[in-house]
Design a protein that fits this description.
five-stranded parallel β-sheet; 11 strands; alpha/beta; 21 helices
Length: about 500
């Protein structure tokens, strides 16, 4: 039996290829190819799976992106917050596609996105993921997905509006289709969009809004739509995991060292140039700022008298003025001050007085390793997102100018339980500062006057100020979204009867 078995084995071996031992390189090549194949299958599975069970695949891909991230040394790893429970997608017949191009900085675009989602919901449209401004002063090349979590944006709003990443091919310009392009009228109400915008879709299935700042009124909008604006702002627009991780780390570093003030020191080159505010600048600096203003043709106001602008409270406080106000408000020199801003005009020399009064001044560039910030360099909106997170989490938030970031942070802090935001009355403060510096007011008189004038400007619950026919002068919806701060139909009990500011 053994002989026959061996001969049979020999005959079989004649028909087999000789066995060649595998080299280590071949083994690694097979492993790499197998890994690529597995990942390709997973990506395809996710793409198909979104059609059948989007919640599962949303969580799966979110966890994968988090696990495959490599934290830097000493990084405080905070997992991204869980998504809100998904509701069923709203079933409606779409009247067309709404394409929007946002203009301005991060927070101006953020508010515009909230408004455009609301308009799409009102008119039963399909919204295309918004395009972000790349041509403004900051020239930030970031796309929507570089700043916000696109999947979360789509999923968290599916109960309200249908959102797609891009237009169907048949509506693409390279295929000869030309959408109707226009800017909607600023501060418009529901009637305008229903009566003047909706009929356009009967002829053009794609409408492109090429400007979106302040295109929806602050007031006179139905309560459900006001709440939708809040839902987009507070829950739908979530920063990318990379931005959130670094933002959480900044907050953690600051909180470990005690309470901190986020000072939005809007003393930056663009702010000074376009506002015409040159108080404290040299003649050479004032000329440079004026040349910059003239270099941008879209900025209509060219000749500006800085002294008049400042006396009207229309200029940001200088770093020196900010130091005086912080001291008058009662902050001592041991308070930790986080500068939430870009590059201060004039550099470190303009911060000398502020640092002398508050030695514990820090910026994100001082708290983080340069390698951690490298991916955000030359992306002003992504850097602003980090400052936004820190400002929202701070013990006290103080903006030196009431721009878009100041207003949206104020609104977020109200939403988070009316966290203290000291909203400076710059017109009053400039008057007090000048009186103190010319010897008219002693320090104690100056400090008392500053504190007294801001007792009711701490971000307390109150009604928005409404000014008929003057939407630019009334309170901004996103700074005080009162409809979203209490659940009852009438908010008077929560906001106080004495806080109504109808004008």
């Amino acid at each position: 039996m053994e002989v026959r078995s061996e001969s049979s084995q020999v005959r079989c071996d004649k028909f087999q290829a000789p066995v060649i031992p595998r080299t280590r390189l071949q083994v690694w090549f097979i492993r790499i190819c197998s890994s690529i194949l597995l990942w390709t299958c997973l990506v395809q599975l996710v793409a198909v799976g979104e059609l059948w069970h989007p919640k599962f695949f949303t969580d799966l891909t979110n966890r994968i992106s988090w696990v495959t991230r490599f934290p830097t040394r000493d990084e405080v790893v905070v997992p991204p917050p869980q998504f809100l429970p998904l509701v069923a997608a709203r079933n409606y017949t779409s009247n067309g596609f709404l394409k929007v191009s946002c203009n301005g900085g991060l927070n101006q675009m953020r508010a515009a996105i909230c408004d455009m989602v609301t308009v799409a919901r009102l008119l039963n449209l399909t919204l295309v993921i918004p395009e972000l401004d790349k041509t403004s002063f900051w020239a930030d090349p970031s796309n929507f997905e570089d700043i916000f979590d696109v999947r979360h944006f789509i999923d968290s709003l599916r109960g309200e509006v249908r959102i797609v990443r891009r237009l169907p091919k048949k509506y693409n310009q390279k295929y000869g289709y030309k959408p109707f392009v226009m800017p909607p009228v600023s501060w418009s109400n529901e009637k305008y969009y229903v009566q003047q915008i909706l009929p356009i879709f009967s002829k053009y299935k794609v409408l492109h809004f090429n400007r979106t700042d302040s295109r929806l009124a602050n007031n006179g909008i139905s309560r459900d739509l006001q709440k939708l604006r809040c839902h987009v702002n507070f829950q739908g627009l979530k920063f990318t995991p990379q931005i959130e991780a670094l933002g959480y780390k900044l907050v953690h570093i600051l909180q470990e060292k005690g309470p901190f003030v986020a000072l939005h020191l809007r003393y930056e080159m663009d702010m000074l140039a376009f506002s015409g505010c040159t108080h404290g600048c040299t003649l050479e600096e004032a000329d440079e700022l004026k040349r910059l203003r003239y270099a941008y043709p879209w900025w209509r106001e060219k000749e500006i008298v800085s002294v008049e602008r400042r006396s009207q409270g229309l200029c940001p406080l200088t770093p020196e003025e900010a130091a005086l106000i912080l001291q008058a408000l009662g902050f001592n020199k041991d308070m930790q001050i986080y500068i939430a801003a870009g590059e201060i005009y004039g550099g470190e020399k303009r911060l000398v007085a502020l640092r002398a009064a508050f030695p514990r001044i820090v910026k994100k560039e001082m708290l983080l390793d340069p390698a951690e910030l490298q991916q955000f360099q030359n992306h002003s909106s992504q850097m602003a997102a980090l400052d936004f997170m820190v400002s929202t989490a701070s013990n006290t938030f103080i903006p030196t100018y009431d721009g878009n970031m100041a207003k949206l942070v104020e609104g977020h802090r109200r939403y988070l339980g009316f966290k203290r935001s000291i909203l400076l009355d710059r017109r009053k403060l400039v008057e007090l500062i000048d009186m103190h510096q010319n010897g008219t007011l002693s320090w104690s008189e100056f400090a008392d006057a500053v504190r007294l004038s801001h007792e009711k400007r701490m971000g307390q619950p109150m009604h928005r100020r409404v000014i008929a026919d003057k939407p630019k002068e009334e309170d901004y919806f996103y700074a005080n979204p009162e409809e979203c701060l209490c659940e009852v139909t009438n908010c008077d009990n929560s906001l106080g009867h004495g806080n109504s500011t109808q004008v």
